[in-house]
Amino acid sequence: MSNQQLPRKKLKKPKRPMTAYNFFFKSEHQKIRQESEGYEGGDKKKEASIVDDLTATSTKKRKTSRVGFEDLGKLIGKRWKEIEKDELERYQELARKDSERYKRESEKYYEDQSKIIPCLSWT
Question: What pTM value is reported for the model?
Fold first, then answer.
């Protein structure tokens, strides 16, 4: 049986670890989406705060309440720079745990990968 005919089991590589900023971005993105959906129904206080934040970071005029990706990135970046120390530590802890998860899964992945790939001998 040639090497090309050997069945190979496909292993799914582990997802790379998220950084503290990634966790923060994900959390803030959900908050902004909930806030923007909430003010479409008529909550003027939420509308005013989000619109103020967006106009402070946006170079484009907004015709709708939908948040564009560029504006979203600018708004979250601004919030990241102003994050409090205890909240930052919480996101750093999440990132540390995710990094440990990635290390464990990577070790297992490469261990399993070495069992699947057959040894090739030249003799």
Answer: 0.68
Alpha carbons 42 and 32: distance in angstroms, whole number: 16
**Dihedral angle sign, alpha carbons of residues 118, 119, 122, 123:** negative
Between residues 34 and 42, the one the model is more confident about = 34
Distance CA 89, CA 20 (A): 9
pLDDT at residue number 93 = 98
The size of the chain, in residues, is 123
The DSSP letter of residue 41 is T
* Cα torsion angle, 27, 32, 37, 43, sign: positive
Write down the number of H helices and E strands in the chain.
4, 0
